[in-house]
Amino acid sequence: MEDSTDWWDHRPVFSTTDKTSRITGLAPGERPGRVTARLLVTAVLCFLGWGAVSLLGTSWLCGGTSAPADTCAVDVPGNLPTGWFIAAAVVVGYLVLHVTVDQTEQARQQLGQRRAAGLFRAAPVLAGMSVGAGLSVVTAVAPDPSEMFRRTVHGLIGTEAIAISAVVAVVTGLWFVTVAVRLPSALLHARQRQVTIERLRRDGRRYAGTVKLGRIVLWLGNNPELEVTIAYDSPAGSHEVRARMRTSPDRVPADGSRVVVFDDLRGVVHVELDPEAEPAFEPEARYAPSE
């Protein structure tokens, strides 16, 4: 694990400033991450993939209603065997999900923060779905916009797919806007936190401390987040710092485990488990979420 570049492999992750998915990690010896060309490429592929899924899905829905064939954005053959369609849908869905999961993992490892990674993943997914559904709507109403709009508003038979596509386009579009507004600050926050961790490891004063476990605040997935107290001594005296600790049920350090505290003497500290102390961990069942 010592050679891993994935910050989560070095859990538990402590933070004296952030909570939940804002807690940021940086693997020992690693430089702060950034949005790389590979991340941007996977984001584009994610956008195209979910755009295609949305477009084909709404067009298939259109073909399944009594709407005229020329109101579909993509001509989906009505006599396409159900088995072949399902098989094609499974293959396409698997590829799109694979790209999405890969992008999420890349972003999580690179940015060191689950919130920033989640927003970075959600942006192209929502944008693709909105554009794909919107294209279905535009193509459907193009032959006679006023007439098709009137028929859709009045809920006439044959316009169900147009109405559903419009709702999908609007909802995912508005959702995308909220994500896009929050994304820059999330990326900046993750970057700043990693820069601070690197600076404290390099220039901060290093002190030996211990961790006192507190209550479980919440679970993110199956991983607990605990309130903890970090105690350490410095030339200025004894200190106790309250912090949050994110980890997995199998890597909750035993109460009193040794930690390393990096202090810049200006009130900013970074805490991590002492890798040289061979820490013991609590029984996994004790910190597993109840079913």
Provide the fold topology:
Blueprint: E1 13-15, H1 37-64, H2 82-111, H3 114-141, H4 145-153, H5 160-203, E2 205-220, E3 223-234, E4 237-246, E5 258-263, E6 269-273
Antiparallel strand pairs: 1-4, 2-3, 2-5, 3-4, 5-6
Helix pairs in contact: 1-2, 1-3, 1-5, 2-3, 3-5
Keywords: Membrane, Transmembrane, Transmembrane helix
Transmembrane segments: 39-61, 81-101, 122-142, 162-183
Structural account:
Keywords: Membrane, Transmembrane, Transmembrane helix. The chain crosses the membrane at residues 39-61, 81-101, 122-142, 162-183. The structure is a single chain. The chain is elongated and about 80 Å long. β2 and β3 (223-234) form a beta hairpin. The two termini are 30 Å apart. The protein has a six-stranded antiparallel sheet, with helices on one face. α1 (37-64) runs parallel beside α3 (114-141). The chain contains five helices and six strands; from the N terminus they run βαααααβββββ. The chain has two domains: 26-198, no CATH class; 204-287, no CATH class. Mean pLDDT is 86; it is low at 65-71 and 76-80. The protein is α+β, with helices and mostly antiparallel strands and 291 residues long.
